[in-house]
Amino acid sequence: MNAWTSYQLQDFIPFTAEVYFRLLERMGETFWPLHLLTLALGAATLVLALTQRTRIACLLPAPFWAFVAVAFFFQRYAALNWAGGYVGDAFIVQAVLLVVMALTGWGMDNAPRATNPPVAIGIAITLFGLIIMPLMAPLSGGPWFQAEVYGIHADPTAVTTLGLVLIMLRGFALWIAAIIPALWLVVSGLTLQVLDSSGAVVLFAVLAIALVGLVWKSIASKR
Amino acid sequence: MKHHIKHRITRRQSLTLIGATLAAVTLPTASLLANTGGMQQKTFAGTGKTLPIIGMGTWRTFNVGNDPELLDARTEVVKAFFEHGGGLIDSSPMYGSAPDVMGYALQQLGTPESLFSAEKVWSPAGGSAREQVAELEDRWQVEQFDLVQVHNLTDWREHLAALQEMKAEGTISHVGITTSHGRRHSEIEQIMTSEDIDFVQLTYNITHREAENRLLPLAEERGIGVIANRPYDGGSLIKNLKRRNAPLPEWAEAECGCTTWADFLLKFIVSHPAITCAIPATTQVEHMRENMRAGHAPMPSPDARQRMAATIESL
Predict the structure, then answer these.
(1) Mean pLDDT over residues B103-125, rounded?
(2) CB distance from A79 to chain B under 8 Å?
(3) Domains present along chain B, CATH in parentheses
(4) Is A48 contained in some domain?
């Protein structure tokens, strides 16, 4: 038997669904009511991005990426999965990247219009990350503390940021800023698929829509 | 087995040991089963020592991090394992927090005399074999492991040499190698032939029987203990049987005492003369009890084993 072809996706996920969803729940329990602040700042970031204050809008998500790296990946997820520390490193890199972009103004789209289709896609993805994602667990019968919230949990942080970069960035910088959020959504989607969670489909759908937005904005900016 | 709690050999264990040694000397391999008041035991690695034929795996199921609720739930599973005569518990540095969870459970329950602690060394975990073993002993909170295996043959030459040295020094009791999913069997065969190992761990279940061709006969010939991992094929065998709502064949209870599919699948594995024990993993106390019942007599005869395999093939 060929050693590599014998591996299945589930061989790389060393925990059960029960453990993973309890982890999300414990994040919620531990940091409540920080959720209110992160959601308010997420909404503020969206407004800033749409009102041409893109550099400050680019800066605001950075501390949340660093927070998720430390509180979620380094302190909790890494105990379950030896690869968790590397993902945490990637989240720190994203935080630094957002700070550098904000400080230098590299790739800023200083006049995003909500009527512009890729920007509209960005707004929809951002609102989905901020409003719909926290409701998914409670609406599907899970406890409220399992609600995944921007700035606290990895998935809505990645989704919301993906939406925001579609609004406030353009050109090569847009793709650079989208890489880590997109890769995490792939990893998380595959994880949820192994855990038999319908959340996998949601993440892959968001990713596909975001990809359409990224390509659209890149093509439009070249015209 | 040297753990932080002193080990006394009880009268029952002494009798078991003497009985099993006599059996090992006088009877063919197939009759190395010893019934010790429920859970059956087998001698292993030509030592005359015995192990309960149902052990416990920890892949995925015991990786609960530092969640207090789940730590207590897994402690209950370990408690049920020992209450039902369990012995070998297998873990790995690749299993996330599973070694720490074992440490927590043993701290809560005390370290039973019957524990046969089996760990692994694995290159991506970092550090030399010695460093890894020392770290894992701290995590389990035991003084010494009964068995340390090279996980999935990673850097096996270096690791095995280090483990052999540690065995010679008396800092570990037995050494072994592992594989799963039928991977790298020819390399496993070479190591079993050329190296002095006590255990080999491999995938063997009713739908994955490749090991019967060469590895299991070789293990018998060389006196190497065999630990069967993935007894339910990662849970998919039980899931599929439940999904099909397939009834157990009527003869299964009369001939080999099977009252559940778990019994059926586990008894098939542990009744192979070369298999020392199977290591099903579970998060549920009830499933643990079900697994442990499969270690009780009667065991299927060679004919019954053939019918068991044919039954699963026909579904």
Answers:
(1) 95
(2) yes
(3) 50-245+275-297 (3.20.20.100)
(4) yes
